[in-house]
Amino acid sequence: MLRHIVMWKLQAKDAVQRELDAVAVKAALEGLRSVVPELRRIEVGRNVASPHSNYDLALLAEFDDFAALQRYQNHPDYRAASAFVGTLCSDRVCVHYESAGEA
């Protein structure tokens, strides 16, 4: 199994707008669950501690292998969601690692 972890910083400075943007990003990404068959698991969470030094949002997605991740990243719905998220975020970091699954 391949795990795909991404974290973002939101651009908005206003707290209300940041909350709206976080909800929109979560909905856009988690909506991929029903349209991208390669996506085995997806979870998007909002940071709850140290907001000034931590990233605002994190995504955990799981795929059977790297080829499945590549198909996901080429899926038109993923591309649209990714472009949308990019309009709301100022910074992004990502890591991929292989996992044996749940312990």
UniProtKB/TrEMBL annotation:
<feature type="domain" description="Stress-response A/B barrel">
    <location>
        <begin position="2"/>
        <end position="97"/>
    </location>
</feature>
<dbReference type="Pfam" id="PF07876">
    <property type="entry name" value="Dabb"/>
</dbReference>
<protein>
    <submittedName>
        <fullName>Dabb family protein</fullName>
    </submittedName>
</protein>
<dbReference type="InterPro" id="IPR011008">
    <property type="entry name" value="Dimeric_a/b-barrel"/>
</dbReference>
<dbReference type="InterPro" id="IPR013097">
    <property type="entry name" value="Dabb"/>
</dbReference>
